[in-house]
Write a structure and sequence with these properties.
Length: 79
Amino acid sequence: MMSATNRFFDPFSLQLKSLDDAQIIVREIEALLGQRNLSLRPPPSAPTTCCGRGCNGCVWQGYYEALAYWREQAERLLR
C-alpha cells in the first residue's frame, strides 16, 4: 500500500475491510495530521473480547463504525 507522502494514496476512500486495513488507514491519517501539526483524539482501540460467533451488534461492528466516524472527523479537520 502507498504511503501518505504519495499523492495518489487516499486513506479516506479505502474501505475498512479488515483490522490490517484499519491499522494502515489510521497510520496514514495520523501521518497526514502530523504533517500539518493537527491533533485529533486517538482512534478507537480494536476490540479484544469478540467471541467469534457473529453476534448481532458484534464488538467488531461497533469498532468499524467508531473508526469510520473518527476518519470522518479527521477528514473534516484536514480540509
